[in-house]
Amino acid sequence: MTKVTASFENQTVHVGLDIHKRSWNAAIFLNEYYVRNIHQTPSPKALLHYLTQNYPGARYICAYESGKFGYWIQRQFQRSGVACLVVNPADVPSTHKDEVYKNDVRDARGIGHALVRNQLKGIYVPDEEQEADRHLVRQRKKIWRDLVRCKNRVKGFLDYSGISVPAQFDNSNWSHNFMNWLRTLPFEYSSSRVTLNYQLRQAELLRKELLSISNDIRKLMRSKKYNKLYYLLRTVTGIGPLTAANLLAEIGDMKRFENFYHLNSFIGLMPMEHSSGEKELKGSITIRKHRQLRSDLVECAWAAKRNDPALALYYSEQIKRGKNGKAAIVKVARKLLSRIRYVWLSGQPYQSGVVK
Q1: pLDDT of the residue at 286
Q2: Burial class (CB within 10 angstroms; exposed 0-12, middle 13-18, buried 19+) of 229
């Protein structure tokens, strides 16, 4: 008897993936129909082998939620000629039942359903070089947070021991004089002195690491890839070297945003909206955001408001209209973002004092 293998040419297999470290759940859809769920080893190669064995000749499309596993899965599928979307988890349609009875099989099937119905839009996947640059810039922020925690532990230890910090040292900037004062503090018991010494050595190490990685980031920004745009962004009032580096690493290509609305939506400097019929209600700032960039731009807006006459005027106008300081500075940050986009795309240096 001659063995006849089914052909799936001109057919499409959609795969919704629920990704975990030790296993994957894959919901298989043939065209628009759900077929089955498989539990497999965490490997694009293993899934591709299953698909080619069971659905030879078909077109394969996969999707999984963005998260701790990054983009390496998407890149391996792409290299194998398989289309793969990385989607924002918040953009996957779900019902109340999905939330009440949540499990890996249901999650994978939900992604697959949305993929079949063309309800998913993939997020931007940076190239590997840009992703590596992102890691470097983000690492500096992690070291800075570790240093803040370390300083807080030192201050907490002093508070617990009943030791008051002199007024000239009671600020966030730890000078050499303050460090020397900490090193010479007398304690009744030697163990307390040893404990503080360990905390101070850790703080010193983190300060050196912070200085070192800041120098590495500046070196990266002076490279041919970033140099011109980096110094162009530095002309924008309020934008410092680290914020410019963060913008370049996180955004990558400004042209990927069709217009300012899409850029603003990515950063998260727009209000949430609950409008229906003739009623239009805009609430507080959106909860969807790029956490670091939005924080940086709001901080930069305070500096820009002090140094750019046009932005200072805009801020005062918002205050006169009844906005509180925080709401007004968010609007200044939004205007600052618009100007950053213009400088980035036009290649023209920033002009302070321009109203629009």
Answers
A1: 84
A2: middle
Q: How far is the C-alpha of 300 from the C-alpha of 83, rounded, in Å?
A: 39
Please say if the pLDDT value at position 256 is more than 60: yes
Contact 37, 28 (CB under 8 A): yes
Q: How far apart are CA 286 and CA 267, in angstroms?
A: 10
Q: What is the pLDDT of residue 284?
A: 77
**Tokens at 169, concatenated:** 């040292």
- Does the pLDDT of residue 2 top 60, yes or no? no
Indicate the pTM of the whole model. Answer: 0.88
Would you say residue 27 has pLDDT above 60? yes
Distance CA 70, CA 131 (A): 10
Burial class (CB in 10 A: 0-12, 13-18, 19+), 175: exposed
Q: Count CB atoms within 10 A of the CB of residue 86.
A: 21
Q: For residues 53 and 6, is the Cβ–Cβ distance under 8 A?
A: no
